[in-house]
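Is this the right way to post structure tokens for a design question? Let me know if I should format differently. Anyway, here goes:
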């Protein structure tokens, strides 16, 4: 059985490894600080918008492509910036539906 935790926003039970609550879509990063891994900077286009941000790659996955191809529906970016025509927009935290992702390039750590 998988480890569960309680969403601090809506109180529903969610997986301990979740970074987004499946019920209320809140960011629940409390355990992520304890997880070992590295942040990889990527640039991607989704839903007609371009974003730059960091993808967390846990130590049990070696490459960004492993994260992209895992069975979760979302790519989670931290320190995200939206590239706009006039000026870049700081977003901070962003979950992008993989089905909407048109392309993704790795910018490095
Ligand atoms: Zn919730």
């Amino acid at each position: 059985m998988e480890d569960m935790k309680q969403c601090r926003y809506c109180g529903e039970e969610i997986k301990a490894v979740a970074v987004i609550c499946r019920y209320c879509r809140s960011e629940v990063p409390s355990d992520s600080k304890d997880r070992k891994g590295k942040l990889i900077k990527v640039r991607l286009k989704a839903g007609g918008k371009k974003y730059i941000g960091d993808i967390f790659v846990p130590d049990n996955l070696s490459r960004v492509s492993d994260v992209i191809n895992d069975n979760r529906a979302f790519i989670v970016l931290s320190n995200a910036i939206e590239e706009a025509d006039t000026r870049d927009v700081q977003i901070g935290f962003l979950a992008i539906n993989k089905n909407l992702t048109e392309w993704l390039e790795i910018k490095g750590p």
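Format looks fine. Someone answered above. Worth noting: Residues 7, 9-10, 12, 21, 23-24, 26 surround zinc ion (CB under 6 Å). The chain has two domains: 1-35, 36-109.
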